[in-house]
Amino acid sequence: MTLAQCGINRVDAASSIGETRRRLRNAQYDVVLCDYHFGEGMNGQELLEELRQSSELPLYTIWIMITAEAAYEKVVAVAEIGPDDYLIKPFTSALLTQRLSLAWKRKRFLKPIYDKINEDDISGAIAAAKELIPKAEGFRSDLMRLLSSLLLEAGQLEQARLLFEEILSQRMIPWAKLGLAKALVRQGKKNQAEGALQAAIVEHAQYVDAYEELASMYMADGRLDQAMAVFEKCLAMTPNNVSRLQKAGNLANMLGDSAKAKKLLEQAVKCGGNSAALSADTVLQLALAARRENNSSDAEKYLRLVKEIAKKDQTVKNKIIDFIATSIYEGKPQLLNEIEIHLSHPEMTQEIATSFIMAADLICPATVEGETPSGDAAPYKWLQHISQRFITTRHISGLLESAANMRPVWKTYIQQIGQDVNDLNNRGVQHMLKSEFTEAIDILLPAAQNTCNNRLMLSTSHAIVKYLKTKPHIEKKERDALITVASGMIERLNGLIDAGTQHSLSQDLQQLFDH
């Protein structure tokens, strides 16, 4: 009725989170008016974050939060993904009209940038944003926020850092402080970044995105217990955020706390429903846990859900997960052969590899005492490939070994393969320390290309950079070939190694390419 007084007559209503997801998936809306409270479970803010992060909510769509709680102002003040506006109940038709009009003008002003983002043209979006600066008027803050995040996404870290610092010099804004920390992390200035994040959390205790960035930073440093503690603080504030529940559940699994992992992942499934944020991998982990506990009804329920999610989006990752689920469901280990061609694929993650070993453990024939492992036949050829690909530390070796459950011969085999990878990497590094870069590349490069092991690819990239710096006059063909190989490896390591290390290597290669 209020919208009709504003001249808006085409209106759909949704009474639950699930129905809201379905409507937004099947139609495009100019405006969403969303209640903050839906009763039990996810709130409107958590839903908004999920839809923005999964790109299910168009950039052009206006989202206005409706709430009876004046305290929501504190929530939105420190939300990385905030609504276009919010209204405290009760409100008048005139106020709603005024807020809608302002939000519409803002969207129209920013439309040239949104158009470029939708075309995946980040450089064009940055150029469009810079063109709008002289005309920004009342939308300068929104424009600066969008421009700074685009610079960060484009890897223009120094420009992003300077812009965040300029914004912060005028006003202490939480999102700018988080943005500055992200830029510093990617530049390898971890101490400064950690200080900025800690300061943001002290000043704004509800700033969940700052907590999550800090947790990611701790994970990249191998400080898993500290990362888990930070995630628990996050989830105390946003207990129904599907993405964070899955991250925390996977981390708990990495720490060997399967009970906590199960609890967190079950909550993710409960809140996820028909959410695009719910990963097939998460549900597969629950199915495997249920099978290990001989809970066949839960296992079947989760396996059916895995296949349902996987079929919605036919990525390589989901195809792998679907094969694993089908092999368990039908009890056919030979189906795992279908995954062999994907074992080196970037979408084959460590979490899926762990699930693969658990599935093989459940359905492969029992091992025979005195069995001799052979990398030429299943299951040992699978274990060999997975171990060579993923073991970078003793901790990860332990995770893969524990996935083999009660098969000592599998565990020993995984451990030995991991040790072989470690020894080979150490030999290459020893050559580097002696400035024997040709020998280092000879050892590391074939192994890195064959296994796609993160540690080997990182060492190989370092060896190539050092070699090219000491050999400025080598033949152009060889130089270009090595730069191409190293660039490909560094690109593949994106998000898998310390952001500062990756940025530094990328800059070194760019300088070598320019010269």
Features:
515 residues, mainly alpha, 3-stranded parallel beta sheet, 25 helices, globular
Order of helices and strands: HHEHEHEHHHHHHHHHHHHHHHHHHHHH
DSSP, total strands: 3
Strand order of the largest sheet: 1-2-3
Helical content band: 55-70%
Described by the principal axes of the CA atoms, the overall outline is globular
Assembly state: single chain
| Structural class determined from secondary elements | mainly alpha
Distance between the termini: 67 Å
Radius of gyration: 25 Å
Nearest-integer average pLDDT: 92
Portion in strands: under 5%
**Separate helix tally:** 25
Q: Which stretches are low in confidence, meaning pLDDT under 50 for 5 or more residues running?
A: none
The description of the largest β-sheet is: 3 strands, parallel
Outline the fold blueprint:
Blueprint: H1 2-5, H2 17-26, E1 31-35, H3 44-53, E2 62-67, H4 72-77, E3 85-88, H5 93-118, H6 122-132, H7 140-153, H8 157-170, H9 174-186, H10 190-203, H11 208-220, H12 224-237, H13 242-254, H14 258-272, H15 280-292, H16 296-312, H17 316-330, H18 350-363, H19 380-390, H20 394-403, H21 408-433, H22 437-451, H23 454-470, H24 476-492, H25 499-514
Parallel strand pairs: 1-2, 2-3
